[in-house]
Amino acid sequence: MSVSSSSRLHVVDALRGFAIVSILLLHNIEHFDFYFTPPNLPAWMVTLDKGIWDTLFFMFGGKSYAIFALLFGLTFFIQFNNQAQKGKDFRGRFAWRMVLLAIFGIINSCFFEGDILFIYAIIGFSLIPVAKLSNKAVLITAIILMLQPYEWYNFVVGLFHPHTVMENPVSWQYFGKMGEYITGESFWATVYGNLTNGKIGVLNWTWENGRVFQTASLFMLGMLAGRKKVFVLSNDSKLFWFKVLMFAVIAFIPFYITKNGLGHWISSEAVRRPLITIFTSWSNLAFMFILVACFVLLFQQLSSSKRSLNLFSPFGRMSLTNYIMQSILGSCIYYGFGLGLYKYTGASYSILIGIALAIFQWAFCYLWLAKHKQGPLESLWHKATWFHSK
Questions:
Q1: Minimal CB count within 10 Å: which of 69, 182, 301, 381?
Q2: To 10 degrees, the CA torsion angle through 358, 359, 363, 366?
Q3: Could you read off the pLDDT of 147-170 as tens digits, one per residue?
Q4: End-to-end CA distance of the chain
């Protein structure tokens, strides 16, 4: 039994909204990429802060963005397929759409150097050459990328040169300079620092942690998910996601154990470092699929859960607006040019601020969507994408 496409889009909106909220909570406890532990906290709060930090990063660290990437590929398929049914090729328009997304990313980077939109815009071009390939060809390409080929090359090099003294990742030298402008009272100094030092640091970090290959792979898997209609709520999709859940659970356990054990098992950093990147990527992907499978199965199976999960839909329908709004509000709350709360808030206080921001954003989305079909930035992106189209 299948249901309408609107139901499919509804579960996708809810899942995207779930990712947005979890990203918001993570960004808050990170002080929007400015890691700072307030001094003189009581011991019980230090313990509580650590518990909140470890729990949120175990649940969502590296997983929420992966959900976003998967759904990015799905959205590409929907748009590509819609245009194909009209006899049009979407790829040229998609390239322009990625240019626009890069502009949004640069604007967002003024407030938050950890912006992902610019990076997604660049990696998004990888979908153009595979858009018309067969399912098998796309799947093979996605698997090769997911295997992290560059890190396996580094691993082999490390085996031949195990005593090589490894330098710190390049991104560290850039992140180490953040305090020079994040803590200052000048908004424009922060903008300049984020767009120069911060952006270079984030681009290097993305490469060093295998996110380039991982993201491209997830884009392609999301496109395949659209082709196979696995987000259409049906008995077939229910069986599919149950199998995904079982496989992901089985895969996550050894990946997670290996990731955490490599530091004790291998003394050579030249060998250990690429393996940690590989198994961290695989561990995060496996847990991401656990989250997605559980979400979709709950959405489909339990009517009461479906109603509660629908609360995430407004976030998902306005994901671009919400993501950039988070950066603006977060930087004003935590950075030196704003309230400077990074100096006073550990994870416990920051998670409360994050929850308050989530409630505010939900209310904004609910009121906005009562009168509009799209969020403000979504509407702008849509109109600019189809500018001069016939």
A1: 301
A2: 60
A3: 999 999 999 999 999 999 899 999
A4: 37
User: How high is the pLDDT of residue 8?
Assistant: 45
Q: Which residue has the tokens 């390049």?
A: 170
**376: enclosing H helix or E strand:** helix 376-385
Contacts of 258 (CB under 8 A, 6+ apart): 279
Sorted by where each begins, the domain ranges of the chain are: 5-385
Number of other CB atoms surrounding residue 125 within 10 Å = 15
pLDDT at 181 over 70: yes
31 secondary structure, DSSP code: T
If you write DSSP's letter for every residue of 269-311 in order, what string do you get? HHHHHHHHHHHHHHHHHHHHHHHHHHHHHHHHH-HHHHHHHGG
- Contact of 31 with 346, CB cutoff 8 Å: no
Q: How far apart are CA 99 and CA 78, in angstroms?
A: 19
CA distance 56 to 50: 10
Contacting residues for 74 by C-beta, under 8 A, at least 6 apart: 12, 222, 223, 225, 226, 231
Taking only the tens place, the pLDDT of each residue in 334-366 is 999 999 999 999 999 999 999 999 999 999 999
